[in-house]
């Protein structure tokens, strides 16, 4: 039987033209984040299965690629359930690995610790446009900063990166998990029902207020609670300042610092931003991860109808590993979607080094080749990108391809040259 030449469903081969864009985007991300003092780290692609399935990752825990035990540990005859077969899993995001990394190395790291992590993650998701089972994530996190300086720095670094990549007129939607909980409590929902209510609320942008209300009623929640809940969202739409309106309505359920904290973040970012975007308070923003404890935010591109990343505060997660909570906040930029948008817009990577191609006629003598290689090395040291290749039979087509790849100078070397 012939071997399959296609990649696994939901994963893809990356051709040279896309790779150029990916390399460029990574370069811009790293340069911008480093300018804010973020330090690159790397973690393994696999984690202990108990770390990945501790009810912190929301729906993503259903999408883990699990790794079977091996050798003597794998005892099929004694297996009664899937858990008996599994000991590791492929990471589904970079936050869980980062927190384990921090818990393991905290004594060796500065405080606060500003981490930059880029790497592939894996989810057994249903593949679709811009969504793969293996994809690159780019995260920045600040661990050990309890104040809103963390949120401000994360938002400015991420939006600055998008601005450098040519994106404009986008939004950073921002909300607070404590506001979400206060709205649910005010409406009369039980605390054990919050996660279900929030999952339905997260569909607001797709099904609207009435759609959310109908789904909540179908779940069996009291009509009075649903109507009171929906009334808050209708009130936000009518209010001149949605955040102030909710803070007043929820005064008996909401900690007094929440409103001021969000106002400080929004005001500071608006005052210091260097890209074209808006800060938007959005009480319908949920973010799917269960580990978020406070501020949450998301990159929204309204004209394109998509989100390109998000994050938030997760102050309780380090404590799962160490027994002692440490404040933490992170922002993940949607690398794959950004690359896709740049590709579809016809983006051309800015020329950074002059590109020269040396074409050698077939049979070019070895004694002369040494000189050509030496000359190529000299030009590389001088800052040029030099490609040395054999001349094809269809030289015209070869030169056209090279020109399309950005080779402005093409030098031909023939056998009979003296």
**Pattern of helices and strands:** HEEHEEHEEHEHHHHHHEEEHEHEHEHE
Strand content: 15-25%
Task: Figure out the total of helices.
Answer: 14
Give the class from helix and strand content and strand pairing: alpha/beta
Based on CA atoms alone, the radius of gyration comes out at: 27 Å
Q: What is the number of E strands?
A: 14
Shape, principal axes of CA atoms: globular
Q: Show unreliable segments.
A: none
Reading side by side through the largest sheet, how are the strands ordered? 1-5-6-11-10-9-7-8
Average pLDDT works out at 90
Kindly state the percentage of residues in helix: 25-40%
What composes the largest sheet? 8 strands, mixed
- Span between N and C termini? 54 Å
Structure description:
With 418 residues, this protein is of the alpha/beta class. It is 40% helix and 20% strand. The strands form 3 sheets. It has an 8-stranded mixed beta sheet with strand order 1-5-6-11-10-9-7-8, with helices on both faces. The protein has a 3-stranded antiparallel beta sheet with strand order 2-4-3. Strands 13-12-14 form a 3-stranded parallel beta sheet, with helices on both faces. Strand 9 and strand 10 form a beta hairpin. The chain is globular, with a radius of gyration of 27 Å. The mean pLDDT is 90.
């Amino acid at each position: 039987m012939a071997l399959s030449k296609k990649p696994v469903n939901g994963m893809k081969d990356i051709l040279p033209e896309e790779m150029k864009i990916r390399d460029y985007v990574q370069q811009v991300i790293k340069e911008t984040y480093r300018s804010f003092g973020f330090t690159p780290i790397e973690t393994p692609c696999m984690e202990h299965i108990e770390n990945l399935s501790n009810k912190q990752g929301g729906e993503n825990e259903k999408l883990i690629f699990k790794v079977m035990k091996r050798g003597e540990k794998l005892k099929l005859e004694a297996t009664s359930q899937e858990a008996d077969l599994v000991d590791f899993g492929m990471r589904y995001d970079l936050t869980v690995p980062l927190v384990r990394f921090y818990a393991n190395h905290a004594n060796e790291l500065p405080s606060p610790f500003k981490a930059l992590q880029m790497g592939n993650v894996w989810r057994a998701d249903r593949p679709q446009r811009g969504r793969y089972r293996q994809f690159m994530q780019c995260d920045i996190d600040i661990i050990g900063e309890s104040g809103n300086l963390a949120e401000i720095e994360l938002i400015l670094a991420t939006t600055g990166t998008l601005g450098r990549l040519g994106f404009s007129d986008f939004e950073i939607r921002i909300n607070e998990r404590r506001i979400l909980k206060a709205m649910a409590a005010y409406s009369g929902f039980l605390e054990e029902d919050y996660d279900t209510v929030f999952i339905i609320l997260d569909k607001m942008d797709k099904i609207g207020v009435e759609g959310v209300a109908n789904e909540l009623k179908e779940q069996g929640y009291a009509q009075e609670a649903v109507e009171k809940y929906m009334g808050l969202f209708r009130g936000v739409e009518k209010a001149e300042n949605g955040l102030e309106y909710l803070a007043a309505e929820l005064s008996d359920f909401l900690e007094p610092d929440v409103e001021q904290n969000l106002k400080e973040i929004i005001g500071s970012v608006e005052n210091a931003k260097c890209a074209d975007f808006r800060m938007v308070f959005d009480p319908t923003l949920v973010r799917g991860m269960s580990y978020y404890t406070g501020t949450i935010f998301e990159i929204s591109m309204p004209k394109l109808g998509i989100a390109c990343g998000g994050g938030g505060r997760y102050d309780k997660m380090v404590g799962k590993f160490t027994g002692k909570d440490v404040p933490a906040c992170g922002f993940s930029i949607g690398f794959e979607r950004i690359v896709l948008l740049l590709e579809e817009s016809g983006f051309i990577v800015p020329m950074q080094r002059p590109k020269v191609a040396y074409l050698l006629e077939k049979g070019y003598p070895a004694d002369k080749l040494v000189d050509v290689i030496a000359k190529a090395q000299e030009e590389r040291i001088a800052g040029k990108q030099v490609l040395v290749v054999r001349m094809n039979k269809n030289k015209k087509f070869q030169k056209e391809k090279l020109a399309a790849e950005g080779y402005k100078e093409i030098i031909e070397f023939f056998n009979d040259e003296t």
